[in-house]
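Thread title: Can someone regenerate the structure for this chain?

I was given the following input by a collaborator and told the matching structure tokens would be attached. They weren't. Posting the sequence so someone can regenerate them.
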Amino acid sequence: MTAETEFEATNKELVRKSFAAWGYGTGSPYDLLADDAVWTIVGQSAASRTYHGREDFLANVIRPFGSRMASHFIPTIHEMYADGDAVVILFDAEGTALDGVAYKNTYAWFLEFAGGKIVKATAFYDSVLFNEFWKRVLPQA
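Best answer:
Regenerated them for you:
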């Protein structure tokens, strides 16, 4: 196993800090997205597809998700690895939906960085849990 480079350590620290801010409700990993980032949600969930650009992803996934939540989403990191310009993170995140029911899912994100920004992401999560939540809770206007 080779030693982590300064570049890899820096990217991991960016992710770690963004997750801490997410947990406190003062920011999120999405603050790291480049304007032209490409984010792919793998699987068969209602949100599974490739999003082209930060705004496409925020408008079609993150904001509608947040408008279904009564509390902010709190992540718990289990593992994080860096290799070159990539950071891989395995985490759980949970919060309370507008209907008072807890929503918790496990995520694996593969993030590619350039210049301190996420330029490409591939995300995996339990699509069955997500779809049930997405259908059950209507977004608040």
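The two ends are 50 Å apart (CA to CA).
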